[in-house]
Design a protein that fits this description.
It is a single chain. By secondary structure, this protein is mainly β. The chain contains no helices and 11 strands. Strands 2, 4, 5, 6, 9, 10 and 11 form a 7-stranded mixed β-sheet that branches. It has a 4-stranded antiparallel β-sheet with strand order 1-3-8-7, with no helix packed on it. The relative contact order is 0.32.
Amino acid sequence: QVQLVESGGGFVQAGGSLRLSCAASGRTFSYNDMCWFRQAPGKEREFVAGIRWSGGNTFYADSVKGRFTISRDNAKNTLFLQMNSLKTEDTAVYYCAARSGSYYFFNTRAADYDYWGQGTQVTVSS
């Protein structure tokens, strides 16, 4: 099992920044792909950013490219999401997720991820 705990959410004005963290524990050797997803009220959970733990390749949704940066600290088994130039439409609960196993293609479908954190609320006001 893998346990994921997010932190760093909060309330910020449009144009501001937040940094989310996701601390992983347990069988941290059992996954290679991690993502940030988000879910706004009344909407489906959507992919935000992903990273391949080995190699560090990163992937982003078009809506956040150039504003968000995903990174990881291998030694601390921690995933980060630096969010800059925040917009009101970024308001959502943000979840980190890990996919068990190792795959050639990076998948951004929420249904394919096995481990999830509890989520952290990000609210961006105008």
